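Our consortium's second objective concerns turning raw sequence data into structural hypotheses that experimental partners can test. To show how far this objective has progressed, the report includes one record in full. It was chosen at random from the queue rather than selected for favorable results. The single chain below, 166 residues long, was entered without modification.
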Amino acid sequence: MDHESIGTKAERYPSPPTSGDEKGSIDSDAAKLAAMGYTQDMTRKFSVLSLLAVGFSLTNSWFGISASLVTGINSGGAVLTIYGIPWIAFISTCVAITLSELASAMPNAGGQYFWANELAPKRYANFASYLTGWFAWAGSIFTSASVALGLGAAAVGMWQMGHPDL
């Protein structure tokens, strides 16, 4: 294949309209995907409210915070709880900003293991991707177990409140 038959990047992926309307943003997304070698097969119909709802339901933040308060109070007391929550919130925000930057720069359904493959040195790219995928899977399993444990502890606590002689 010679360079003349390929054409320049601008010829292969023409710039989308910049009128600011919805069609322009969809064309912009399709052009970004085309630059990565993909075609846009699905339409995007998320509003800001639906994105917030999906994010909230995925993180279980209210339940995670309330379940972790019990552990914090039992393990370190009020000092750990008062100083630990803002510190962990800051660290989590830094991680979220980093992941959102990666997601906007390299949108892919694979997420973290795709980014590990793209950003690691070529010698270690496959192993880094494999390890990242397994750590993400293990994290999901442990998170599910933690939520189940918290729900069980909450159910037992509510039962004990209604039946003090238990």
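The partners drew two points from this record. Confidence is low (pLDDT under 50) at residues 1-21. The helical segments are 3-6, 9-12, 22-35, 48-59, 61-75, 77-105, 112-119, 125-162. Both points have been shared with the crystallography group to help prioritize constructs.
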